[in-house]
Specification:
Blueprint: E1 8-9, H1 19-31, E2 36-40, E3 48-53, E4 60-64, E5 68-72, E6 84-86, H2 89-103
Antiparallel strand pairs: 1-2, 2-3, 3-4, 4-5, 5-6
Helix pairs in contact: 1-2
């Protein structure tokens, strides 16, 4: 889904967001303060979806309480399968941060 102006700055999550998502978003915001995000969920299967955008990169995170964090991207188009699946918010944020820096978004500096 493209960004339509309803995105929010990462540190501002809806009250309904699970604590695991608040944690991963908080860790990502510390690494990349310029990221924009859009949160959707939970879907019928209980999964939440976070679409991110920064410097031409568009990673995404799917989270389900029973399965953990599925990390997609961070290229300009998302793969059908996640690049990684991890259990903990900090691990998800660090792994996605490494992927983003590896893909080399020009403005992505580690905070």
């Amino acid at each position: 889904m493209p960004f339509d102006g309803n995105e929010f700055v990462l540190r501002y999550l809806p009250d309904s967001a699970p604590l695991a998502l608040v944690d991963v978003v908080g860790h990502l915001a510390q690494q990349f303060p310029a990221l924009r995000a859009e949160l959707e969920g939970p879907g019928r299967n209980g999964a939440w979806w976070i679409e991110l955008a920064a410097e031409g990169l568009s990673p995404a995170i799917e989270w389900h309480e029973a399965r953990g964090f599925a990390l997609y991207g961070p290229g300009p188009t998302l793969p059908e399968e996640p690049n990684a699946v991890v259990a903990q918010p900090l691990e998800a944020a660090e792994r996605l941060g490494r992927l983003m820096r590896h893909w080399g978004g020009t403005g992505l500096q580690h905070a």
